[in-house]
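forwarding from the other thread:

> can someone predict this with pyridoxal-5'-phosphate?

sure thing
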Amino acid sequence: MNSPHMSLEEFRQHGHAAVDWICEYLRTIETRPVRSTVAPGEIRASLPASAPEHAEDFSACLRDFENIILPGITHWQSPNFFAYFPCNGSPPAILGELLSAGLGVQGMLWQTSPACTELETHVLDWLVDLLGLPAFFKSDSTGGGVIQDTASSSALCAILAARERATAGRTNRSGIDRRLIAYTSEQAHSSIEKGLRVAGIGSDQLRLMPVDERCAIGADALAEAMARDRRAGAVPFFVCATIGTTAANGIDPIRRVGELTQRYGAWLHVDAAMCGTAMLCPEFRIHNDGVDLADSWCFNPHKWMFTSFDCDCLWVRRRADLIGALSILPDYLRNAATESGAVIDYRDWQIPLGRRFRALKLWFVLRCYGAAGLRQLVREHVRLARLFADLVRADERFELALDPPLNLVCFRRRGEDAINQRLIDKLNAGGKIYLSHALIHGRFALRMSIGGTWCEERHVHQAWRFISETEP
Ligand code: PLP
């Protein structure tokens, strides 16, 4: 009987073809319509109703990939993609993903691939220095870093660690304490509320604080809310501050929030999902002032740091808090290395047991760009955002919704929301660019999010020309 496996010779041949395909794709990506325009159900209608009974040739898979799948792809890597936040890939990261898949490593325990764990620990220690984070986040101190899939998972892990710390481990044993209260700004990412719900702490136990004119959390309102809750016998246990909110890039005053958090013995989590990358540049660290008060801090290299999705880095001040909340040791995972206490088992630092070898792509990115290369690109993106903001300011038909602190520009046509809704619909319909929107202080704004791997000054000028010449 023939083996159903693809032979290694065929794999070599198709592998080369796939890498060639990616090169050509990236080389010509800006000629493609940025956003897919397929109708709901269109892709499925092109697929056979049932899975193939007999093996097909891989070249048929690649052909259908081009013909059926590509029309349903929104090209996040296009330099004309300015929507949401970037979700960057880069050649070294893609190769890291490929090699990681080639190894097929599952790194749940140190023992299941020591290099998977040790490279992760090492690269996250490097990043503490590169981002100017406090030394207590390092593995040779009380803390340590771990790669999660997303910032949502980091928030959930931080919430669980905070919950157990606040209840001395009682919640894990006997269920939720209804007195626990969490705080964040009304502009914080929805993953904070979701994480609280998953942790059994309902939305009723979350206080969403109003923001100021710069979309940063109102620290006075936070102080009042925490004091009020404490007087009522509740337990303020968790505060999330954001560096770079999703809608408008609002930056919470970490130090002020951290001082309040400390006063109540609560946990301070800093969500720097997108803007954390800016901390590579010392001149932007002003936005991280107060990080020395944080219990946990996370950012997504898969957003602005050229590391293919998924890759979120989470650091905790005291790893014992995280491990205490998440560790369960069934007999089948017992092993001598774990019992020696000399190794890290990252399964205890996350929700799932199994884990991918994500550190490989991050390591490749750090080595192939170098810190200097990364800083150069971050500074360039911030420069481009400022340039775009200047173009908006110079056109009296437009206004900025906010002064951009870093690489996100929120702007609008002067006038009603409906005009701006029509404008963005027209802009996005043609496939030339892709922008998304936000409600800022209740008013519609367009978001120009700059930070794509391949975005250059000419793309920003081109986008502005198109925006300013489109009549809503
Ligand atoms: N936090 C912020 C500030 C974000 O902007 C986002 C996503 O855009 C998230 C968290 C969630 O990110 P993830 O998809 O990694 O969970």
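The chain has three domains: 8-31+36-73, 98-363, 371-469. thats all i got for now
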